[in-house]
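Annex B. Sample input.
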Amino acid sequence: MASIAELDVLERPPRADLEAIAELAAKVCVTPMATINIITDDAQHQVAAYGFPAAICRREDSMCAQVLDADTPIVVTDASLDERFRHNPFVTGVLGSVRFYASHKLTTRDGVDIGTLCVFDDRPRELDDAQTEALGTLAARIVDVLELSLRSRQLAESNQRLQTFAGRVSHDLKTPLTSLSMSLEMVREQLSDGADPAVLEGLLERALRGSARMAAMIDDVLAFATLGGGLQTEEVALDDVLDEAVADLDGRLRGVEVERGPLPAVQADAVQLRAVLQNLLDNAAKYRHPDRPARVVVSAARSAVGWRVSVADNGPGIPEAERGRVFESRVRLDRDADRAGGSGIGLDTARRVVQAHGGAIGISETPGGGATVWFDLPD
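Annex B, continued. Sample output.
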């Protein structure tokens, strides 16, 4: 069972389904008031009530909190005569004048007591066995409702993650697939023009490397569906990873000058890290400044936590106010990205991969104009 906070009832208005159960409890027990309480470390939260407005009180003032560790049901004909409750502010008149009080704990399937269903009156009365049993049945149904709501929300979130995952797979596989297709197309042209064996061998080798990278990416991205659970870390030479990313982006990087500084070896998942560099290089190639030749510089420097890798372009840049938002899924700042095939998930993918490695990612301005996307990888 998840935590009380994950039940998502403390900060919301009373739910109609819970209010209906509270009303049913009052009518079954023939009392004017009933409430469903969730009890935290410091407070009692009346998440639904019948016969009075729901409120919050201190845990030490709660009648139910006093008996949360006791066996239930608890049925008290006159609380003013009961040693457990006679000095309670809900009995003495400070907060209320409760006389009849009956409660049943709300216990999750994992055996955790999270609160109570209670009915009460300002005059003494009794419950028969059938009413007492019904109070317990209704308490169990409250827990069922809360847990079903939680599972429904988790299912909706899972479906959203699945949709994002499907988009990410499509996005990441397009790059090596494009490289593979271009190589095979060039092989076909060579065969029709009288093939040079050396050229053919080079093209086929390039196609095979692209195919191998695509197969590795498929295996890795499936293992990484839960993001963070499927990292296969090893010592990775960033120079080699960058070489592969540039090779896969050969067609997209035409006309772009790519420079690199000294790059280290890091502990990382090579396939996932290549996806990050591919996304950053692809964005740099996609968003070019109209008045100057495109240029990208990939470099690395020691940081407080390990290594900071930077991909700096000389494009139009990203406004400072938008630099955090571009890492959100499917956010695109430039509609021209539609014509370039942008899906708006590239930087979100990069953020999630870097965070899964225990690092951080951000954007700063390139000196002279442009955007520098950097990410930190811990030692």
